[in-house]
Amino acid sequence: MTETKIARYGNSLTVRLPAALARDLDLHEGDRVNVRRIENGVAVERQYGTRLAALLATVREPEAEIGGGRSRGNEVFD
Q1: Helix (H, G, I), strand (E, B) or coil at 73
Q2: In the structure, what pLDDT confidence band is assigned to residue 49 with cuts at 50, 70 and 90?
């Protein structure tokens, strides 16, 4: 267990996660997490797939296929 400090961020309170814990949990700036109250405190749960979902949301339509031209050797592309 690691002790950390609560800080103010605008009208909200924040909890800083130690870098080692963030690495262990594969958390990065901008990731979304779920925060919920439990009996004796707070639980922070990582949302899986958030980065992939964010990347996929930027795809407008599939890229057009690029032709390779005519064969110059024994290449076969199906």
Answers
A1: coil
A2: low
